[in-house]
Amino acid sequence: MSPTRASAGAAPYRAAQPDGSNPTADNPIAPDGTPQLDRDYLIPARQGRAVRLKRGQRLTITNPQGHQVCDFFAITANSPAEFLSMEHCRTALGRIFVKSGDRLVTNRRRPLIEIAEDSSPGVHDILIAACDHTRYQQLGCTDYHDNCADNFRMSLAAIGETPRHVPCPFNIWMNIPVAKDGTYDWAAPVSKPGDYVVLRALEDCIAIMSACPQDMTSVNGVGTVPAELVVKVGE
Amino acid sequence: MSPTRASAGAAPYRAAQPDGSNPTADNPIAPDGTPQLDRDYLIPARQGRAVRLKRGQRLTITNPQGHQVCDFFAITANSPAEFLSMEHCRTALGRIFVKSGDRLVTNRRRPLIEIAEDSSPGVHDILIAACDHTRYQQLGCTDYHDNCADNFRMSLAAIGETPRHVPCPFNIWMNIPVAKDGTYDWAAPVSKPGDYVVLRALEDCIAIMSACPQDMTSVNGVGTVPAELVVKVGE
């Protein structure tokens, strides 16, 4: 497989692995996704990982390079039909962005994830769909391109779970400034190397994270390549 | 069943039927949802209806009172897993609102519905989740309240279809002005009596419409009660 890019002058597309495949489905953090506490888990560039969280546990997502977006999803432990839902969050919050202290809700309007800490300037997105195969085709890619929708599916497949659909993600560090006229830009993150977000699970759930492989817009920085993330679970 | 409202001074809640039940599931426009062309179908206040559309057909939704919001959904004819998706529309459009001429896309980023005509000032919403049982409980309702999520499910049940989940709707005539700081208001519609929107099906699909029963915020007008809609399908 040899993914190619149509963007004139862009750096050659680099897949998660040299052969163009993405090993997310074969690399769970543990067979059932249960983490060892206080252990750092790497999410390699362009890949995803699913992590089971118990109520009250804190998930720290660190951005070593500072410019990397994390597409974040969560589904409740006992029902794949209940998931973190951005349209319900917007309704609950009364705004189209999140900030530290917010309690993010599911499609059943139950609080599931709290933004407990945020070392970054707090610029995140709750408006934009996860990138997927079609998105890259529309951007000019002519072969497979790693994408957050497949990372979501593969991360769950890796721990034996099958999602019903791909919800709209909470795009941590993604910078989508909305103008007064309702248009928006695909801007570079304003986070810095080492920034982290701490999310607290308000119910038992599965957190799914994708180190967004987007390299055909500026959402993972300008002059940079998609990078890794590090996650850790603590009490 | 006797739905009640907690809002001080608000008019008593009036359900779709005097006994508090909602007859949407028992009143399809036809057993399989296929419309007679150029015939007006009433969507009574607080109820929903599903209508099968063939590629190229035009669906006219009329707002007789002018202040009534229509929660609009669409799923493709052959796959309940493919549906009109607001987060994918925002990505495709580059803005957080729609306008006449827009082609709205599915979760697979395929154009499904075109806004062919709009007699109203064009103020619609693509940010807010469908109202549901929990929403009304959170607003202070202590018993069942008609809601767009149940209308969506019942409209499809009425024609023998079972959805996987309730997608974020295209809220026609719903006025959610977003301020520069990202907060928004629940404002009254700016549409006028008799306003209509014409939607063209770009693929065979099922359109699902709910005459939004919201009477605990201002989205269906101030000093008004939820009203009916009229739909018609033509070539």
From TrEMBL, chains A, B:
Protein name as annotated: Urea carboxylase-associated family protein
Domain called DUF1989: residue spans: 42-206
Renumbered residue ranges of the record's region Disordered: 1-40
Alphabetized Pfam families for the sequence: DUF1989
Source superkingdom: Bacteria
Segments of skewed composition (Low complexity): 1-16
